[in-house]
Every structure is written in C-alpha cells, then in structure tokens.
Backbone:
C-alpha cells in the first residue's frame, strides 16, 4: 500500500519525512536547525501514526467470477507456505546490497478459489522507489523527483488468476509541500529532545506507547503541528499487461497528486474528516485510542491523462478498434489504523480506481471496454496476515467481478 515520500503511485511526500527535510524552514540560522532537528524527531517517532493514504493497494480482476466461497481449511494450510517463504525473504534482505535495492517493495503470498472449486496460490507485488530527489530551495519543500513503480498479481496457475493486470511506470514530477512544520519555542524543542532520550529506553512499541514519555510527547508535538498540503505534477509512462503478456498497453501521459493531512487531531480540519469517523469508533472500542478521536488523514487523490497504444489486445480487436486512444484515470485512496494487537497496528485501506476512454468507438462502447472501475478494501498490518475484498474490473477485464482473498504479506 511505509515509504513516506513521493512515489509512482502515491505522491506521499505529504508525510512528515518530506516536511522534516525542509518544509518552510528559515534559512541558515540556529532556530532553523532547532526546528529541523525537532521535526526529524517527530518524523521518526510519529511515523507509525502519521499515515498517508496509499493509492496503489488495489489489484485487478479478470473475467470468471472467482472468489473465495469456502475451503477455509485449505486456505490456512496453504498459508503455511507463505509464512515460511516470508521468513526466507527476510533473511535474504538482511545485509545484502541487492535486497537493499528492493526497499519499498511489498510482497504478498495469497490464496484464492475459482468457481469450479480449485484453490490457487499466487503472489502480488507493489514496488515504489524514488531514485532521485532534488530540492530547489533551502527554505521551502519543493523540488523534482523521478521514480519507478510496479504492481500486479501473478497466479502459479495462470488459468485461475482472478487479478490478471500488471502495471509498471516511470515518472518525473515537480512536488511542493506546505505546512506541517513545528512552530514552537526553543523550550518546547528541548522538552521534545528530553522526551526522546527517555523514550529510547523502551525496547518495544507496546512499552513505548504505554509510557508517560510517549503520552507527553504526543501532547506536546500535536499542539505545534500545522496541517499540511502536498501536491505533485509531472509525466509518467510505462507498460500495462496481463500475466502472460499476451495483451499489452503502452502508456504515456501526465498526472497530478493532491494530499492533505491535519496532523493535530484537535484541529478544526481533522473534525471534518468524515471518512475516519467509523474507524475512530473502532479504535475507541478496541482500546487503541483512550478517547473517540478522529484523525486528519484525508484521502489522497491522483488524476491523470494517458495516451494509450494497445499491443495485441484481443478484446479491442474483436471490438473493431486497435488504434491508439486517450484515456483519463483517477485513483482515490484512504488508509487509517483500526486496532492494535500486541505490537502490531492493523489498518483499513480503501483504493478506488477509474479509467475512462475519451471519444471511444461505437464497437468499444458496445463491448463495455471504454470504462472500468475497481475498488479494493483491505484489513491487515504492514506485515503478516491480511484480508481483502475487491469488486469491479480493470483494463483487459471483460466483466465486473467480486473476489475475497486471504494472504500473508512481507515488506522489505
């Protein structure tokens, strides 16, 4: 779906990491350095709570109406394999230069069941990596960045893959972030640093969150965090295909991302985040939050226009149009914590994607290939078991579908 910086799918620089790298800082003086140091502290300690919405969690569905309907025992038997494989992957990633290259790579092993009763095992991947970040100012967080991103789902038996859609894109974008900085006195920064030193004695997330130092840190920090707005605009292009690469689209276009976060939950902006009200209630009843508290993590929105060049698209060929066309796309994503079990935080993630072809030919419209929308709802942590439900269709799909899945995910 956590890499709090611009990405091919996300534009996640709205998070504290980018702000800590220079949002609205006075130039070259001691106060600026104090502010920057304090914000670096906030970035590190609040990262697990300062969640950004993450477009890109969704996966596609193919025609065939596949879904998990029963066979729970078989599913959990298969999950023994994913857990073992994830432990192996973790061992490989430690201390290896090649695996460090795979930072920001999310890997899922999962099970699904076809209508004919066959239970399958497959994997999904989501890679989003920034390879260049250049600030254009020392006083304002804006600059340029280029990224590589890829996501998709692969079944070990391709004939029963319910999510047969792969994407890979490169992007070059201008970004700008405003707000989010700490506007406090030197005494406040001193207190935060003292709290940080005291909190370093705790060795687990559970102990840290229960400590008086953490509670006081949140009280102090949240009072001085301003709401933050991030946007980026730029060019992106790449390849869309099915698992066998028998159907492909080459795409090139422009896109923009907007993201707003009200870091202080007591701010007026946070109160208007209607999307988080149900989950604030869940956090309260599960004991994650001591009080009913709405968080200001608003959905992230991506809008783009692409020129699409089909390559061996049998569906469009049957509709009588294999030429290039223009297509609009939007992606809206929302992520919020819902519960904490032990040291693990569990999140609800929603990702909604839409694709609309402009001035589609009559045959394409008749075949219902000009428009697609896809919704994925996921419950799970950053690693471990997850549950998901998806509905709709994506490019290359012939019809709408509904899929229930269970799996195990590993994040490098």
Residues:
């Amino acid at each position: 779906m956590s890499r709090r910086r611009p990405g091919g799918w996300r534009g996640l620089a709205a998070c504290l990491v980018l702000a800590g790298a220079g949002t609205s800082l006075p130039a070259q003086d001691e106060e600026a350095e104090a502010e920057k140091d304090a914000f670096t502290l906030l970035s590190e300690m609040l990262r697990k709570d300062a969640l950004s919405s993450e477009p890109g969690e969704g996966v596609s569905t193919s025609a065939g109406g596949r879904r998990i309907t029963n066979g729970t025992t078989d599913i959990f038997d298969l999950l023994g394999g994913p857990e073992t494989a994830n432990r192996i992957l973790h061992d490989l990633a430690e201390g290896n230069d090649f695996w460090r290259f795979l930072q920001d790579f999310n890997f899922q092993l999962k099970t699904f069941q076809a209508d004919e009763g066959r239970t399958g095992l497959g994997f999904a991947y989501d890679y989003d990596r920034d390879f260049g970040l250049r600030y254009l100012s020392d006083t304002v967080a804006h600059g340029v960045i280029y990224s590589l991103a890829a996501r998709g789902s692969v079944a070990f038996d391709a004939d029963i893959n319910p999510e047969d859609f792969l994407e890979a894109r490169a992007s070059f974008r201008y970004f700008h972030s405003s707000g989010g900085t700490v506007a406090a006195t030197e005494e406040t920064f001193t207190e935060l640093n003292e709290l940080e030193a005291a909190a370093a004695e705790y060795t687990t997330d559970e102990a840290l969150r229960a400590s008086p130092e953490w509670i006081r840190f949140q009280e102090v920090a949240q009072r001085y965090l301003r709401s933050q707005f991030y946007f980026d605009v730029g060019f992106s292009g790449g390849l869309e295909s099915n698992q066998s690469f028998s159907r492909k689209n080459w795409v090139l276009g422009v896109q923009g991302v907007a993201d707003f976060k009200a870091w202080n939950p007591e701010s007026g902006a946070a109160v208007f985040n209607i999307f988080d009200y149900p989950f604030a209630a869940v956090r309260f009843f599960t004991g994650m939050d001591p009080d009913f508290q709405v968080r200001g993590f608003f959905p992230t929105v991506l809008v783009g226009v692409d020129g699409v060049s089909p390559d061996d698209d049998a569906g469009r060929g049957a509709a009588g149009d294999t030429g290039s066309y223009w297509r609009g796309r939007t992606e809206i994503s929302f992520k919020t914590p819902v519960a904490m079990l032990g040291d693990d935080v569990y999140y609800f993630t929603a990702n909604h994607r839409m694709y609309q072809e402009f001035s589609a030919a009559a045959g394409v419209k008749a075949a219902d290939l000009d428009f697609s929308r896809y919704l994925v709802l996921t419950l799970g942590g950053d690693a471990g078991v997850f549950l998901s439900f998806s509905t709709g269709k994506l490019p290359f799909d012939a019809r709408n579908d509904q899929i229930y899945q269970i799996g195990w995910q590993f994040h490098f």
Summary: Residues 1-93 have pLDDT under 50 and may be disordered.
